[in-house]
Structure formats: C-alpha cells, structure tokens
Design goal:
Layout (H helix, E strand, L loop, with lengths): L5 E7 L16 E2 L2 E2 H10 L4 E8 L16 E6 L4 H12 L8 E4 L9 H9 L8 E6 L4 E4 L5 E5 L5 E10 H9 L9 H7 L5 E4 L10 H17 L3
Helix pairs in contact: 2-4, 4-5
C-alpha cells in the first residue's frame, strides 16, 4: 500500500491540572528539551507527514517558533475548551492545505516517547477505506470495575479489550465530519467520534513505552526512556 498524503495535528492547549508546576506539562524540560519538542521532533521524522499544526491555549506564553527547527511545522492555532474542539479547530486550520483523499494523524502532545518507526507502521497498516487506525495495546492486566466507593464491584474479562494510544490516523474529511456531528465535550479521543459515525478503526499494536505523561512519575519515566533511546541511537 502506497503512503498517503498525511498531515499531523498536536493538541497542546491543556492546562495540565493533574501535574502541578509553574508551566504546562508540554513545556516541562525532560532529557534536555521541552516535552513538546520531543513529540514534534518524532513527527518531523516521518516521511509521509507533509505538515504539522499545533493547537495552543489562548494564553500560551511558552511556545516559540524554533522549539523544533523544521519547515514541516506549519504553525499554531488557538485550541478550544476540550481536546476534541482543539482537534476540530486544527482540521479547520489545515483546510487550505488539504487535497481530496488526504489523511490526518492526531497525536497527544503528552506522548513524547513515540517512535517515528511506529508512526510509519501505523500509516502503512491503516487498511482500506476511510475508517483509519490507531495505535493501541491489548489490556495486559485483570480488569476490575469499581462500585464508586473504591471497592471492586466485579471483574471484567480483558479478552478483546485494548488501551487506546495515539497517534490516531483517519481520512481528513471523515474525521472532520464525525467531529462536527459530535458532542465535543464528551469525545475522549478521535476514534470514538469515528466509531459514533459508523466507522470501524483498525487497532495497530503499539508499545508500552509510548506512555502519556500525566503525573510527575510519568515525567521521570519518560526522561529515562528518552535518555536510554538516545544512548542506543534508536529511532
């Protein structure tokens, strides 16, 4: 399957309420660079990605144009009050660049350990049609459902359960239409909007080290992963 024309969106408008600190987590320095710089650098190394747009908060004061030295960074735009709204605004920002049949890849700013090779694999394994694909991991642990009071109500079979990651890759037109028909306040990832529109995205196995930084412990682990990868020269 030939590589399609792809564009990338990085929603980075969050306030990081679960990670205390002076600045949002996407700008916290790990392994010598802001977290967001690691994320963007990985995307710039993926051949089929023609351009990258970054969604920022309206009061963002930490972004600077040379956070990553690459002409693939198209620019920034003001995000919305939810992640889904930020993605939809990003799709609107990309509209002048997009051709019929183009694809868009959405990746969390807070996943700095993504490997370019895994992004390329996601693109190559996206399948036919506009349903697209996402990186995900089969649920590795026994699943428990809480009764709302920190007690186990029941055990849920993990058979067939996957933990969604990003990037997630979809037909540009299909994702835009799906989000426009969605309640943006309740959409937790782009795949769920596509599913609600009747699509069946493909699950492409990802890696456990493609973690989402949420806590201080996640930051420390991400730094170790990036430092070890740099020492080994991994891509």
């Amino acid at each position: 399957m030939n590589a399609p024309r792809c564009w990338a969106l990085v929603p980075a408008a969050g306030s990081s309420s679960r990670l205390s600190g002076e600045r949002p987590k996407q700008y916290v320095e790990i392994a010598g660079k802001p977290l967001l710089a690691h994320t963007l650098k990985a995307l710039t190394e993926v051949g089929p990605i023609l351009g990258i747009a970054v969604g920022l908060a309206s009061d963002d004061r930490w972004w600077h144009e040379n956070i990553v030295a690459s002409d693939r960074i198209l620019g920034t735009y003001v995000g919305g009050v939810s992640r889904a709204e930020t993605v939809l605004r990003g799709l609107e920002y990309l509209e002048p660049h997009v051709h019929t049949g183009d694809w868009v890849l959405v990746h969390d700013a807070a996943r700095p350990c993504i490997r370019p090779l895994d992004i390329e694999r996601l693109i190559s394994e996206r399948g036919d049609g506009p349903s697209g694909a996402l990186l995900a991991l089969p649920a590795p642990d026994t699943m428990k459902q809480s009764n709302g009071h920190d007690q186990v109500e029941r055990t849920i079979s993990r058979e067939g359960l996957w933990c969604a990651q990003t990037p997630q890759l979809f037909s540009y037109r299909a994702l835009r239409d799906a989000l426009q028909r969605s309640d943006l306040a309740t959409v937790t990832d782009d795949s769920s909007a596509m599913e609600a529109a009747g699509y069946t995205p493909r699950l492409v196995p990802g890696r456990a080290d493609n973690l989402k930084v949420t806590t201080r412990e996640d930051l420390e682990l991400a730094a170790l992963i990036l430092q070890a990868r740099c020492q080994r020269g991994d891509r």
